[in-house]
UniProtKB/TrEMBL annotation:
PROSITE patterns listed in its UniProt record: PROKAR_LIPOPROTEIN, TAT
Start and end residues of each GFO/IDH/MocA-like oxidoreductase domain: 200-328
Residue stretches making up the Gfo/Idh/MocA-like oxidoreductase N-terminal domain: 57-182
Signal peptide region: none
One Gene Ontology term of the molecular function aspect: nucleotide binding
Gene3D superfamilies given in the database record: Dihydrodipicolinate Reductase, domain 2, NAD(P)-binding Rossmann-like Domain
Protein name: Gfo/Idh/MocA family oxidoreductase
UniProt xrefs under Pfam families: GFO_IDH_MocA, GFO_IDH_MocA_C3
Length: 446
């Protein structure tokens, strides 16, 4: 059977030897939030701009739209910040990114532009303080490990992997970064967003009592896709259409919905113990992914979260989170309600010149997370967020696995699974892989 056949055997198979990465505890996540608990959480410094300090040179690995945006966010975080290197699998992506940056008066030296599967190694050999990792998520574990081995501080986009093996590798590399005194900030920007942070403080302080239930949702129109062009090999086609192949992006329950899943884990104070759910494909034109997921996450002690995501055109859309407590509920972002629906508390946004609420936080969370990165480096107070984001990513993988197979999936199974998606080697050309769309209830069969 092809190793990428999406079967329960492949998803849940136990490794004979788990290794150190497989048995690391989830120390970043404590027990479930409760009324009047002590808040055990490291809040980021909410500065409008990072403090001045030594010049910082950064390199970008992954020159697509998100990578380009992340680079500009880094440059906006403070003074004396410089982007000096670019790397991507595709040469045209490198030059396109460089041209976009030049329009923003950011010029990257041509000799520091690299392309190909090993381009990241050439970039990391340079004298850099920070590496921004924004390739398709499949490559994140290997690139993260290389960055830490090269003693670079890292901005790590989410999701941080696509399979359990990758999640455990991220956790192990995070431990290395901590031991080396490096800083690693991840792209879970809601944890740097001022209204979310203040709402979390209220809830952790007992504003809605004990937490009893939650839901998380990301429903939107179908995102971008690429049709195959003449002359593209299997590998080039998949890489240029990466957002539609599970081995590259992990499906949209990871690629986008992981944000909402991360919020529920954060507010609950732990990851779920097991998941059961369903999903399906109705409209997608390319790739091997689902159009929708509906997952029930069990946090134990009778606490559940319904997590659902969808990417289909022409449907009702909504995005966000909701957590119920014994004394009220919250949208997690800016409002706490009494049980009868009346407002108990709201976040106070900055006001405009006419004294009206702007409805937006003072600093974009996309910039705020980079302010945190630069501040941690310049004040020599390192912080590593990679483990907690790996936990949320693995939570999404547990939900995906439950939907693909139609089976109940446990956290223990995820932490010992030997599932590793993708080809054995990376090279342009034909790829000997099959991409069946998973069929629940039969996906366990060869």
């Amino acid at each position: 059977m092809d190793k990428n056949q999406l079967s329960r055997r492949n998803f849940l198979g136990k490794s004979a030897i788990i290794g150190a990465a497989g048995v690391i505890g989830m120390s970043a996540l404590s027990s479930c939030s409760a009324k009047n608990q002590t808040v055990d959480y490291e809040f980021p410094p909410l500065l409008d701009l990072a403090p001045d300090g030594k010049p910082l040179k950064a390199g970008l690995v992954g020159c697509g739209n998100r990578g380009t945006g992340a680079a500009l966010n880094f440059l906006a975080a403070g003074h004396d910040l410089h982007l000096v290197a670019l790397a991507d699998v595709f040469e045209d992506k490198v030059w396109d990114c460089r041209n976009k940056l030049m329009k923003q008066r950011v010029e990257v030296p041509e000799q520091n532009c690299f392309w190909g599967f090993d381009a990241y190694k050439e970039l990391m050999a340079l004298d850099l303080d920070v590496v921004i990792l924004a390739t398709p998520p499949h490559f994140r574990p290997a690139h993260f490990d290389a960055a830490i081995q090269a003693k670079k501080n890292v901005f790590l986009e989410k999701p941080v992997c696509v399979d359990p093996v990758g999640a455990r590798q991220i956790i192990a590399t995070a431990k290395k970064a901590e031991n080396m005194g490096l800083t690693v900030i991840t792209g879970t920007q809601r944890r740097h967003q001022r209204d979310y942070l203040e709402t979390y403080k209220q809830v952790a302080g007992g504003a809605i009592g004990d937490l009893v239930a939650a839901k998380a949702f990301w429903m939107q129109s179908h995102v971008w896709f690429r049709t195959r062009e003449e002359g593209w090999s299997d590998m080039e086609y998949m890489l240029r259409n990466w957002n539609n192949f599970c081995w590259l992006c992990g499906d949209h329950i990871l690629d986008t919905h992981v944000h909402n899943i991360d919020i529920i884990n954060w507010f609950m104070g732990k990851h779920p113990e097991e998941a059961v759910g369903f999903g399906g494909r109705a409209h997608r034109l390319t790739g091997d992914q689902y159009d929708y997921f509906s997952i029930d996450f069990d946090f134990g002690n009778g606490v559940f979260s319904h997590s659902f995501s969808r990417q289909i055109d022409g449907c009702a859309n909504q995005l966000g989170e909701l957590i119920m407590g014994t004394e009220g509920y919250t949208n997690c972002k800016n409002t706490i309600y009494n049980p009868d629906g009346s407002v108990k508390w709201t976040y106070e946004y900055p006001k405009d010149k006419d004294g009206r609420s702007t409805g937006v936080v003072k600093v974009s969370p996309y910039v705020q997370e980079h302010i945190h990165l630069v501040t941690a480096i310049r004040t020599n107070k390192p912080v590593v967020e990679a483990e907690r984001t790996a936990v949320s990513t693995l939570t999404a993988i547990m939900g995906r696995t439950a939907a693909y197979t139609g089976q109940k999936v446990t956290w223990e199974e995820m932490m010992t699974s030997n599932m590793k998606l993708g080809p054995e080697k990376y090279e342009m050309g034909a790829v000997d892989m099959e991409f069946p769309v998973p069929v629940p209830g039969t996906a366990h069969k060869a």
